[in-house]
Design a protein that fits this description.
The chain is an alpha+beta fold. Helices cover 34% and strands 24% of the residues. The chain has 2 domains: 2-53; 84-123, no CATH class. Strand 6 (99-101) and strand 7 (104-106) form a beta hairpin.
């Protein structure tokens, strides 16, 4: 096994063997590292098979890039969205009154409530 996250005394990438597995709802391990020491309570999410380590790192990097890109697209969508004060209010049941953000439909009623709260708070 290899560590994918740092733990006290061992950096990510350190190799070892699982000595004992514990837990039902929270799986954790005693890991015997190559230097001969054993560390207990290493979380399941901190370990990966040696053969899968490079693939795991590239997948983690890809996920981070996708998250940055999604955040940039969301910021762009917010910046390009029309200002609520420029458009007349649409009733909650009006068709087309909802907005879709990242594939999730936000009802106009919630948008109106949010705008009213911002106005009430002076934001």
């Amino acid at each position: 096994m290899r560590l994918v996250d740092d733990i006290p005394g061992y950096p990510a990438g350190s190799t070892g063997k699982i000595a004992v597995a514990n837990g039902f709802a929270w799986t954790r391990y005693w890991v015997r590292f190559d230097d001969g020491t054993a560390v207990g309570h290493v979380d399941h999410h901190c370990l990966v098979e040696r053969r899968d380590y490079e693939e795991f790192l590239s997948a983690r990097e890809r996920e981070e890039l996708e998250a940055v890109e999604a955040a940039a697209q969301a910021a762009k969508a917010v910046a390009e969205a029309p200002d609520a004060s420029d458009t007349p209010a649409v009733g909650a049941g009006a068709p087309g009154g909802a907005v879709e953000v990242n594939g999730v439909t936000i009802p106009q009623r919630l948008l109106d409530m949010s705008a009213a709260a911002r106005q009430r708070l002076g934001a």
